[in-house]
Amino acid sequence: QVQLVESGGGLVQPGGSLRLSCSASGSAFGFTDMGWYRQAPGKRRELVATITKLRSTNYGDFVKGRFTISRDVPKSTIHLQMDSLKPEDTAVYYCNAKRKIFDDDYWGQGTQVTVSS
Description:
By secondary structure, the protein is an all-beta fold. The relative contact order is 0.32. It has strands at residues 3-7, 10-12, 18-25, 33-39, 46-52, 57-59, 67-72, 77-82, 91-99, 104-107, 111-115.
């Protein structure tokens, strides 16, 4: 059974930093793409960042160099380093893992990030 476990959310002041982590397990084939999405109250879920097995990355337009996604492929673990956080970054952040071989994907339970003074 595939399982994604997230950690690292919390409360931070504007301009501060947080590091999110997500570990995926339960797939003998590993995962093709992994990434982070977020959803703020009353808004649609949006892409934050994704990373492939070859470590090719893609970021949402709003990131503008503030976030960095990284991946430990053998451990099926990703990290999201978030710097220069803004109040508008407040949201629930969800980890996602895709398997192209089965054309499926999985979601974590979400971790709350709150940016406030």
